[in-house]
Amino acid sequence: MQRLPLLLILLFLASTPWAGGTRYEMRVDGLACPFCAYGVEKKLKAIEGTRNIEVDLDHGIVKVDVTEGRELTEAQMRQLFHDAGFTYRSMKKRPITENGR
To answer: Is the pLDDT of residue 99 over 80?
Structure first.
């Protein structure tokens, strides 16, 4: 019976979707208030596979993690930010490490 909790923990860790994926960091002009951040977050959350969305209003940076096998494109982000009323400038991407960053 003592092995059951350990087995459950191991199964949970093995099924955690945090391994792999890509972190995108986008520069965006026009982000000025929390309502701006909320609008961007809402649009990004609508894209399947996105998670951990962070909006830095002071620096005009939007970070978003995407699950493994999914990809955000420059054209897709340019259109998303244009539709939200902002100007997309650039995007960097890098793999997410085992610790999630």
So the answer is: no
